[in-house]
Specification:
Elements (H helix, E strand, L loop, with lengths): L9 H11 L2 H8 L6 H11 L1 E3 L14 E3 L2 E3 L3 E3 L14 H10 L2 E5 L6 H5 L6 E5 L5 H13 L4 E5 L9 H6 L13 H5 L2 H10 L4 E6 L2 H9 L4 E4 L13 H12 L4 E4 L6 H9 L4 E4 L1 H33 L12 E3 L7 H5 L11 H9 L9
Helix pairs in contact: 1-13, 4-13, 10-11, 12-13
Length: 379
């Protein structure tokens, strides 16, 4: 078994996860909805941005710390909520919560992640956020949120882009049904969820409240006007509405609409430290890591998530030095310009060495490539 402490690249974690996860769990983690166009757009939007570095600045001391909704972070990162995490690792939400505490970031627990909010709350004496899928009536929603508050979660996040469950053809083709979906076929409650419900919940939630799944300036404006503290720009990692724009493409208009009245998190296609810096330069307060977190969990559980965050921190520090900045707050759009993306599949754009066999036997690299959207396309 690979010693996780000896892993030096994120691609090595990807290779280990592919070896260790079941085919169903792998496709659930890596796939998107229908044609997976939104999944690809998330990555393409990042690849359309290039850096404009400044030189001859003193960058001897780099500070990567940030503050999100009153919580001080070592890195401007949250471990994004992942439903059915128990299909990736038996510990479910306990592993990333402990990893987040060790690494100085925040884990946002999904309400459809075992072993549940009470058990995860006891996993580490460290700030945690809670993300809710609406899977019951108003009484169920209120009871669940109040239980999260009782167990000390520092922020409540409402998922708002699940009026219907995305048609995820990888899962359908293989007959894979994520654990959290078993016994929950009805989507009536989430479909009926609306702005009046947001107002009602806001009236009794006294900790910071976020809306996850915002992708337009119009909805961001409504959310801020109704008193939410955070806008979470997300398209569910390309798992919900197909043919949506990438989240990084949506971010500038949302930042402008919010106008500093709320903090902003963004996820979608974030796989490298440079991706995080691009999002921060566009105005995000912090960045959510979802698939990369799942990859690390599949590769080696809690320790692998900690190692992943160490590698990402190293990438961030080196890139900040090369950009000529020493603090996160110094980043802005002047450090970015447009670029022509390379003709790669979405995962290859983050891990180009996969085609050359680094980190895994050639047969495993081939299997990885065949599992990706766009495999076989012209290079």
């Amino acid at each position: 078994m690979t010693d996780i402490s000896q892993v030096d690249t994120l691609f090595q974690l990807l290779s280990l996860a592919k070896q260790r996860l079941s085919p169903g769990a792998w496709d659930y983690l890596m796939g998107g909805s229908e044609t997976e166009t939104t999944l690809n757009q998330n990555r393409l939007a990042l690849d359309r941005l290039a850096f404009r570095p400044r030189v001859l600045r003193n960058v001897e001391h780099i500070d990567t710390s940030a503050t999100l909704l009153g919580q001080k972070l070592k890195l401007p990162i949250i471990l994004a909520p992942i439903g059915s995490m128990q299909d990736i690792i038996a510990e479910g939400g306990v592993a990333p919560t402990r990893a987040a505490a060790r690494a100085g970031v925040v884990h946002m627990l999904s309400s459809v992640c075992a072993p549940g909010l009470e058990e995860v709350s006891r996993a580490a004496d460290y700030p945690k956020f809670f993300q809710l899928y609406v899977r019951g009536d108003k009484d169920w929603v209120d009871s669940t949120i109040k239980k999260a508050l009782e167990f000390g979660y520092r922020a409540i996040c409402l998922t708002v882009d699940r009026a219907a469950y995305g048609r995820r053809e990888r899962d359908l083709a293989k007959g894979h049904r994520p654990t959290a979906r078993v016994g929950h076929a009805s989507e009536t409650f989430q479909a009926a969820f609306n702005w009046d419900d947001v107002d009602r919940i806001r009236s009794y939630v006294k900790v910071p409240m976020l809306l996850k799944g915002i992708s337009t300036a119009e909805d961001a404006e409504i959310g801020v006007a109704r008193g939410v503290d955070g806008i979470y720009v997300s398209n569910h990692g390309g798992r919900q509405l197909d043919h949506s724009q990438g989240t990084i493409s949506a971010l500038p208009e949302i930042v402008a609409a919010v106008g500093g009245r709320a903090e902003i998190i963004v996820d979608g296609g974030i796989l490298r430290g440079t991706d995080i810096l691009k999002a921060l330069a566009l105005g995000a307060t912090a960045v959510g890591i979802g698939r990369l977190q799942g990859i690390a969990l599949g590769a080696g559980g809690e320790d692998a998530v900690v190692r992943m965050l160490e590698i990402v921190e190293n990438e961030i520090v080196r890139s900040m030095a090369l950009l000529g900045v020493t603090k996160i707050a110094e980043l802005n759009q002047r450090y970015l310009t447009s670029a022509e993306p390379l003709a790669r599949t979405w995962l290859e754009s983050a891990f180009p060495l996969m085609r050359e066999g680094y980190g895994a036997p050639a047969s495993e690299i081939r299997d990885l490539s065949l599992a990706l959207p766009g495999a076989g396309a012209a290079r």
